Every structure is written in C-alpha cells, then in structure tokens.
Amino acid sequence: MEWILFDKDGTLIEFDKSWEKIGIRLVDSLLDEYPVADKEVAHRQLGILDDAIVPDSVMGSGSLDEMIKAFNNVVGKDVSTWTRNTSQSLVDTRVPENNWIDGVYDMIQSLRKDGYKIGIVTSDSRKGVLQFLEDTNSKDAFDLVISTETHAAEKPNPAVLNPLFDHYDVKPKDVVIVGDTNNDMKTKVNAELGLAIGVLSGIAKKEELVDADVIIDTAVSVPEVLKQYSENK
C-alpha cells in the first residue's frame, strides 16, 4: 500500500454537529420553497425525526445526488439546481467544529514516517477543509486534499479520486480508504481500491458498513490493520 485516504468528519475529527444543523436547514428551506401537504411526513421520509437526523437516512449518510433524488420524490419536481446551490451556500457559511479524535493526529504522523502518502477525501467544501487545516495547524500532514464543490463528483463515484490518479503514479490496488460511512466503503468498491477500513467514530453503525473490508473503533488502529494486511499478503 502506498496511499491512505481519510474521510474527515467522523474519521479524523469528531463528527461536526454543524453538519446536522445544515441538513435540517436544507430540508426546511426545501419545504418552504416547495410546500408539501404534510411537512411532518416529508421530514420522516428524508430522515429527520424530533429535530435530529437519523444516521442511516438519506440526510444522514446519503450523497448529494441521493438527497436530490429524495427531494425530487418528496416535492414532485426536479429541484436539483436549487438543492446544489442552496447546499453549497449553507456549507460555505457554516462555522465548523474541528476537534481531532484522540490519537489520530499522532497516528497520521506515524504513517508518514513509515513512508505512506496521506490524503483527505471529503464531502466538505475546499473552504471547510482549509478551515480544518488552519484550525488544527495540520496542513503539512497531508499530501493531497480532495474536497467537493458544486457539480463536482463525490463519494462513492470513483471519479472523485481523479485528482489522485491524474497527478500521481499510483495504482488503485495500492490505495486504502478510511471512513465512517458506507459511501466511503463503496468508493473502494467502485474505484477498485486495495482496502476499505470502516471506523465507528462517526455516524454509521457497524452493521451499516457492509462494504468495509475491516471495521475498527477509530482510525488510531489503522497502522495495525495495515501491518496485518501486509503480513497476510
């Protein structure tokens, strides 16, 4: 293995509650813009219950494309342009919470010393990632950052990894992805990567990480997984 790609929220840092606030605001804005007969039913369909997002719902772990499909079904029309623009606006104005999961930063430094290249692949915007890198003074810890902007590919679409494969001489089988949702794990499958490591430090439960090769409590254990993988090859 040569590259280790980490999801950000829920994997490197504690899951940012500001994302939940954005998700709820996005749905409420949708239903204000495109009223439906029963707002409570629409909330349940989209995964909002008691002013919180259900983790395994489309709002909890779905991609933006999946959210758009769900929104279209709820309001009965194509709201893809509105959704992309409104979502991006909410992301650009959010105030992030950037708190490392215990031991993860030191783990990354250890991987770098062992010769691995380290990257981030996140559904957050470039602005959000830069805020994270600045707040945590960790810009030098990563060799590549892949963020998601309006109309860009996102996980689990394998095209999200084009910035890696277009600019670095690395084969998919030599890339590991680490994340807290099954969309991260599906990215491994779709891009034919070498290994998918699921972590339980974010929003997904163990049974939801169905496409993971290995599941661990937090990313701190990634070096152990890589060692075992290397020994078993």
From TrEMBL:
Gene3D superfamilies: HAD superfamily/HAD-like, Putative phosphatase, domain 2. Keywords: Hydrolase. InterPro entries: HAD-like_hydrolase_sf (IPR050155), HAD-like_sf (IPR036412), HAD-SF_hydro_IA (IPR006439), HAD_2 (IPR041492), HAD_sf (IPR023214), PGP-like_dom2 (IPR023198). It comes from the Bacteria. The keyword Hydrolase applies. The keyword Hydrolase applies. One of its GO terms (molecular function) is hydrolase activity. NCBIfam families: HAD-SF-IA-v1. PANTHER family: PHOSPHOGLYCOLATE PHOSPHATASE. This is HAD family hydrolase. It comes from Staphylococcus borealis.
